[in-house]
Design brief:
Largest sheet of chain A: 8 strands, mixed
CATH class of the largest domain in chain A: Alpha Beta
Structural class of chain A: alpha/beta
Shape of chain A: globular
Strand order of the largest sheet of chain A: 6-7-8-3-9-10-12-11
CATH superfamily of chain B: MetI-like
Number of strands of chain B: 0
Number of helices of chain B: 13
CATH topology of chain B: MetI-like fold
Radius of gyration of chain A: 20 Å
Number of strands of chain A: 12
Oligomer: heterodimer
CATH superfamily of the largest domain in chain A: P-loop containing nucleotide triphosphate hydrolases
Order of helices and strands of chain A: EEEHEEHEHHHEHEHEEHHEE
Distance between the termini of chain A: 28 Å
Low-confidence stretches of chain B: none
């Protein structure tokens, strides 16, 4: 079952027109799969992950559908979608440090939250305490205010809270970007543990840190300028990428043991196109070293081998 | 906690001492001489009798000793609850004069401050989520909060008092009545109270409503509100949190506004010739009544300090972040 996203297009309404931040995404996430979603700023990865749980007031769903465990998600209907949020689709936000109401004790806030969703706090409490212990937190944190916890503790509390109702899909949005390296690793391992223990069935880990997501993800999907570029098992993406953008992205990562004083680390020249009025054809064409005439036509996102999809004419 | 309140009390005590000292100084720096005023009032024709009379009055008011002695005497008398004798209403003691005016001022101030705060917060919070209310409350609030108290008072007196004739426009009660605890007097005092109250209420209301509207919008955009929304929390709960958190800056605002509101009430009292402390201040200044002026100021200082102290305590009760700060001995 899992998640099935079909031709999803989400635009931002602005005074100057629609910004086509997500322009046709079709992919699946299988049960038990941890999918890393990578790409540079403005590539649409946050838009994609947000639109799966909550469209904010500026976002407009233009086309597409999202199916989770065989049920269509009513993305555009805020009230109807509430039933699925938290219980079926859940989110660990980027801002986990400030995600808790500062003037409520954490336990009280969780109680009010689950009760407002029609669940019993008393029934959930033993499981909540067990999971807090699992991430190394004592049940006492429930009697604390968020200000009394360290950043890492808040992050773990939010991770436990977000997955409390065993959602089918968990979206982890840049969860590690505000943490130091050792905590990053602990958080990443906790995510895997949550999947292994069945707290969540599948997971989308949004990040711009490819090296981190490589360690935990089963598959990695790379986005560029609002389009999907490549999706494949993590090993494949890192070791045998097919899309020129992915290749350049991987080659611009520093490697352990290489002294960059001798060999300069290269980036990708140029900048991604503006999405208010994106160019036709392949959107990476202007920066792509392999570009040729055919690239004026938009390449389809197709499977080039089992479990490996690429949107590039050269890869086919 | 003890340490926090100990420190706070010390600050309040220091403020009090400085305020009382200034209070004593200011009338003495004013131009004019109260004793001369008394003498002209009694219009003595014989120049020889002027000297003994001046001596008598200076003795009565305690002005025949050096300034430093006057200052010390002032403190010692004050601690015994004695604030001297009024020049304007000679020989009535200042304490009595003030105590007669205080109920009127309190009856104006307390309801207008508290009701405008409560109503402004409620209406502002509502405006933050209803477009039509936002489009009406916001401009109205800006106009109201920018209106000077006395000008609004004059407008109200003119429209509701003179043109429509619903409310009396001057005094604390009809001149035909004497203050007493009868239904008739209280009803009469109420009609006189209403317009000054309304003008104070409206001006303050506008400010609170705008503040609350902006704070609620800010809170609803905060991370915790977004997170709760992503978890499918009903809007009701999110709004409750936002309202509560937005109340904290409003509470601070109330503490800051108290002094301004008191000043506004004084001017309003003068517009409506309302027999409260503001009216007394005007009379005291016009009659060079040092002692009455000192007394009224002292009362206002105590009132503002007390109100701020209460808000300090409330703040500790409602905001857990200040409380955790206290444990570290900071703040």
């Amino acid at each position: 079952m899992g998640l099935r996203v079909e031709n999803l297009r989400v635009y931002y309404r602005t005074m100057r027109g629609d910004v086509k931040a997500l322009d046709g995404a079709t992919f699946e996430v299988a049960d038990g799969e941890i999918m890393g979603l990578a790409g540079e700023s403005g590539c649409g990865k946050s838009t994609l992950s947000k639109s799966l749980i909550r469209l904010d007031s500026r976002m407009k769903l233009v086309a597409g559908s999202v199916e989770l465990d065989g049920k269509m998600l009513p993305l555009t209907d805020h009230e109807a979608m509430n039933k699925y949020r938290f219980a079926e689709v859940s989110l660990i936000p980027q801002y986990a440090m400030s995600a808790l109401n500062p003037t409520r004790k954490i336990g009280k806030m969780i109680a009010e939250l689950v009760r407002s969703r029609g669940f019993s706090y008393r029934v959930l409490l033993p499981e909540l305490e067990r999971r807090l212990a699992l991430v190394g937190l004592s049940p006492d944190v429930l009697n604390n205010y968020p200000i009394e916890l360290s950043g890492g503790m808040k992050q773990r509390t939010v991770m436990v809270l977000s997955t409390l109702l065993d959602p089918s899909l968990l979206i982890a949005d840049e969860v590690t970007s505000a943490l130091d390296v050792s905590t990053q690793r602990a958080v990443a391992e906790t995510l895997v543990q949550f999947r292994d223990r069945g707290f969540v069935k599948s997971m989308i880990v949004v990040t711009h840190d490819l090296s981190l997501v490589y360690q935990i993800a089963d598959t990695i999907m790379v986005m560029y300028a609002g389009k999907l570029a490549e999706k494949a098992p993590a090993d494949k993406v890192v070791k045998e990428p097919r899309h020129p953008y992915t290749r350049l992205l991987i080659s611009s990562l520093p490697e352990v043991g290489v002294r960059y004083a001798e060999r300069r680390l290269v980036g990708i020249p140029g900048r991604p196109p503006g999405l208010l009025d994106p160019p036709s054809g392949c959107r990476f064409r202007d920066r792509c070293p392999l570009a040729f005439d055919k690239c004026a036509e938009e390449p389809p996102f197709v499977e080039v081998e089992r479990g490996h999809e690429v949107a590039c004419w050269k890869a086919m | 906690m003890h340490r926090y309140f100990g420190r706070k009390s010390l600050i309040y005590l220091l403020t009090f001492i400085v305020a009382v000292t200034l209070n004593w100084l200011i009338p003495r720096f004013m131009p004019g001489d109260p004793v001369l005023r008394m003498l002209t009032r009694s219009s003595v024709s014989n120049p020889e009798s002027l000297a003994p009379m001046r001596e008598y009055y200076e003795n009565v008011f305690g002005l025949d000793v050096p300034l430093w002695q006057q200052y010390l005497n002032y403190w010692s008398e004050l601690l015994q609850g004695n604030m001297g004798i009024s020049v304007w209403l000679f020989p009535a003691p200042v304490t009595g004069v003030i105590l007669k005016a205080v109920p009127y001022t309190l009856a104006l101030l307390i309801p207008s401050i508290l009701l405008s705060w409560v109503a402004g917060n409620k209406v502002g919070a509502l405006a933050a989520r209803r477009k039509w209310l936002d489009n009406t409350v916001l401009p109205l609030g800006y106009v109201l909060t920018a209106t000077p108290y006395m000008w609004l008072g004059i407008l109200l007196a003119w429209s509701l008092g003179i043109v429509m004739g619903i409310f009396p426009i001057a005094g604390g009660y009809s001149f035909a009545l004497r203050p007493s605890f009868t239904v008739g007097f209280i009803a009469n005092a109420f009609t006189h109270w209403f317009l000054p109250f309304l003008s104070l209420f409206l001006v303050a209301f506008g400010g609170w409503a705008i503040g609350m509207r902006n704070l609620i919008i800010y809170e609803l955009e905060a991370d915790y509100a977004n997170y709760l929304e992503a978890l499918g929390t009903p809007r009701k709960l999110i709004r409750r949190y936002a309202f509560r958190n937005a109340m904290l800056p409003q509470l601070t605002g109330l503490a800051l506004q108290l002094g301004v509101l008191v000043a506004g009430a004084l001017v309003t009292e003068i517009v409506f010739a309302y027999p409260g402390l503001g009216y007394l201040i005007l009379q005291a200044i016009q009659n060079q009544d040092f002692f009455l002026l000192q007394g009224v100021f002292l009362f206002i200082v105590i009132g503002v300090l007390l109100a701020n102290f209460i808000i300090d305590i409330i703040y500790v009760l409602v905001d857990p972040r200040t409380r955790t700060g206290l444990q570290g001995g900071t703040a």
